[in-house]
From TrEMBL:
Top-rank lineage group of the source organism: Eukaryota
Domain TLC intervals: 34-229
Its membrane topology: Multi-pass membrane protein
InterPro entries named among the record's database cross-references: TLC-dom, TLCD
Residues annotated as transmembrane: 133-149, 169-191, 203-224
Protein name: TLCD2 protein
Keywords of the record: Membrane, Transmembrane, Transmembrane helix
GO cellular component: plasma membrane
Subcellular location: Membrane
GO biological process: membrane assembly; phospholipid homeostasis; plasma membrane organization; regulation of membrane lipid distribution
Lineage of the species this protein comes from: Eukaryota, Metazoa, Chordata, Craniata, Vertebrata
Length: 230
């Protein structure tokens, strides 16, 4: 096994253990006790988003490694490959957790999303290429922090609070910047560099962007309708 695969396996096991112990670390309020597994799942997802966002300040990486913005295929800073491998382990764990604890009609969108991410990030881990591209994709985890906080506040029955309202505005702002704009930039980069990317990898990337972009636009509409246009 390559070190990347071992790191994926270790990350999967670590997030699995964290998920199992999360209820002791953050006991669910009475309003969330009917769905304990989801409470654990969201807090585990929040831990991954916080870890990724803390260790992936991509704007800083682009300043420290100017070649990264020109070559997202073969160039990546130290530690970037490990960060992507850790994320693959998390998405695998979250996939298994939802598959075991939630009905398919309730989770198929996220399962589909995770499948695309696992395939795309898995290619980067195995080939040690496109790691820079995966780093840019992980910028969405900055917004995921506030998406997960929103779910936690909803489960804790804290919708009518200043904290929820403030989080809604930050969530919307980071969503536009770190999801919509980031996906648009990635799609543009993929199109402009199609001659430098092997056909099979280009096909995977194109399909991934074609799936992710509509999903994120639909989610943005749902957020606007729920938090601002209700």
């Amino acid at each position: 096994f390559s070190p990347g695969l071992l790191l994926v396996a270790g990350s999967f096991a670590a997030f699995r253990l964290l998920n199992r112990g999360m209820e002791r670390l953050v006991p669910p309020p009475p309003s969330a006790r009917r769905n304990r597994w989801k409470w654990r799942n969201i807090w585990t997802s929040l831990a991954h988003s916080a870890l990724t966002s803390t260790h992936n300040p991509s704007p800083c990486r682009f300043c420290l490694h100017p070649g990264l913005s020109e070559d997202l295929v073969g160039t990546h800073p130290p530690g970037a490959h490990s960060l992507v491998a850790i994320s693959v382990g998390y998405f695998l764990e979250d996939f298994v957790d939802m598959l075991c604890n939630q009905k398919l009609h309730q989770s198929w969108e996220l399962l589909f999303h995770h499948s695309v991410v696992i395939v795309c990030f898995g290619i980067a881990v195995l080939l040690h290429q496109y790691v820079g591209f995966a780093l840019v994709a992980l910028l969405v985890e900055i917004n995921s922090i506030f998406l997960h906080l929103r779910q936690i506040l909803l489960m804790a029955n804290l919708v009518h609070t200043t904290c929820y309202r403030l989080n809604s505005f930050i969530n919307l702002g980071t969503y536009v910047v770190f999801r919509i704009a980031t996906l648009a930039w990635m799609t543009r980069w993929l199109f402009l560099n199609r001659e430098n990317v092997p056909p099979a990898t280009y096909a995977v990337g194109t399909v991934g962007m074609a799936i992710m972009t509509p999903m994120n636009i639909i989610l943005l509409y749902r957020l606007l309708r729920s938090d601002f246009f209700k």
